[in-house]
Amino acid sequence: MSDDRLLSGVGVSPGIAVGQAIVVQFELPDVPLRVVPAAKVGDEVARLREAVAAVRKHLEQLRRRTEERAGKEEAKIFDAQLLMLEDKEVLAAVERLIRDNQLSAERAYEFKALEVRAQWSRSTSKVVRDRVADLSGLQIWMLRRLLGLPLDVLFRAGSADGKPAIVFTRELTPGLTVQFEGEKVAGFASEEGTRTSHAAILARSLRIPCVMGLVGGLARLETGADVVLDGSRGTVLVDPSPAEVRDARAHERRRRALEKQLEKVVGQPATTLDGVTIALRGNLDLPEELDVTAQHGAEGIGLLRTEFLLVGRTEMPSEDEQARYFERVARRFHGHPVLVRSFDLGGDKFPAVFRSTHEGNPMLGWRAIRVCLDQPDMFRAQIRAALRARLHGNIQLMIPLVTQLDEIEQTRELIAESVRELDRAGVPSAKEMPIGVMVETPAAAVLAVELARRVDFLSVGSNDLTQYTLAVDRGNARLAGRFSPFHPAVVRMLKWVCDAGQGAGRDVSVCGEMASDPLAAFLLLGLGYRALSVSPPALPLVRWLIRQVDVVHARRAAEAALAAETTGDITRIMEAALSEHVNLRFLEAGRLPKARRSTTFRP
Ligand code: PEP
Ligand code: MG
Question: Are 331 and 393 a contacting pair, CB within 8 Å?
Answer without folding.
Answer: yes
